[in-house]
Amino acid sequence: MTGQDVAGLEVSGLGFSYGARRALNDVSFAVTQGAFCALLGPNGAGKSTLFALMTRLFTTSEGQVTVMGHDMARAPRQALARIGVVFQQPTLDLDLSVRRNLRYFAALHGLAGREAEHRIDTALERMDMAERADEIARDLNGGHRRRTEIARALVHRPAVLLLDEPTVGLDAEARRAITAHVHGLCAEDGLTALWATHLTDEVWPDDRLVILHRGEVRADGIAREIIGDQSLTDRFLDLTGAST
Amino acid sequence: MKPLLIALWAITAREALRFAQQRSRFISALVRPLIWLVVFAAGFRAALGLSIIPPYQTYITYETYIVPGLCGMILLFNGMQSSLSLVYDREMGSMRLLLTSPLPRWWLLLCKILAGTVVSVLQCYAFLGIAAAMGITIPPMGYVYALPALVLGGVMLGALGVALSSLIRQLENFAGVMNFVIFPMFFMSSALYPLWRMAESSALLRDICAVNPFTHTVELIRFALYGQFNGMALLWTMLATMGFMVLALWGYDPGRGLLRRKG
Fold this sequence. Notes:
Chain B: It is found in: Cell inner membrane; Membrane. Chain A is α/β, with parallel strands linked by helices. Chain A has eight helices and ten strands.
């Protein structure tokens, strides 16, 4: 079930309702291993619901999520072990140092001791955060807190990284740096990334792009092909704006 | 097995550290039972005569009578406090970190409960120490025998707290837990008055007290403190622990969609 032919992340026929309100309807897409996939959608498109289903915060009987060939419903622990998640809300313990935050997370994945320390060092270096390992999270700026969270999501060496609007509240420079960092993780380390955003400037022309609107997939392909000769912002508004 | 223990250790250490950082929480957790012991007991002593009932072998003062109940109170308030922190964690997002771990969810919840129990039991001993300094002593071995009883009681009330936290949608609703869980559980128990006293005013009330699992937790602690074993209390406390655990697991079942956004 492993190997290059297996998609890093595959979502098929996913549906979900909050009572009478339909949040996701027949959502399907697959991201090949090592690809950076942007999930673009306006607020309320269903991105966070999709993330909750992909991370098993809740489950649905409609459709399927598979991570590296592991079905989230049937083998949740294998699937969860292969994903790293950066939530939209900050989840750092602000009173602890960067390293202790990562150590706590490593323990939640059953990692401790020298192995954990080694992985923590590697992850922090990967995100250019090594020299801040002993700083208290509260003293970090927004961009560095986000980088810490991404480093934390890498500690258990996942194959798939899920990021739910990771640049919310950051300035332009920090946004650009973090977007570039995660592109680097895909290109250099072969990580599969799903990057949810509502900001079109975070999508690069060669990225895989899925546009979600009102709980449905409106476009799916390579960004430059979807855009055609328009700007992405115009194309995005064409697909979603007219009806909002 | 090892990954499970690593997680248990980390979750317990985090809870203990958080507790150590909140000194006011520790002080208020101690002051609450001490006020009962000093003020309430002084007023009640005159009003309430106590006969010799097991496990006591002589006449005892009212202060001595309520010590086990106040240990129970510490466990009860702490159990609810940890449920409050779970609701807070859920709103703040750090609960997501825990629930997306690949370790079994039942284990992660159990770790949370055990971590809270460690903190509760430490507080109970701090309280027993102060009570001893005030002259309310227990046979020395009683302090040892009480440990398993306190741990079981802590787990039972911690599990209840986790179960309740899954039902509370918002932090603001926590006041309801105070009114509808903590107060009835505490007052309708043998913590403050023996059940035969209760029976004098109302047989129905006595029956309610007798099925209240908190009564049995208090009695388990009371008997253990005097080196005696109360099988009935143990059975009830264990049954209630299992029941609350099942409720807690059900409450955090991803199929229930607990973490859904509001609205």
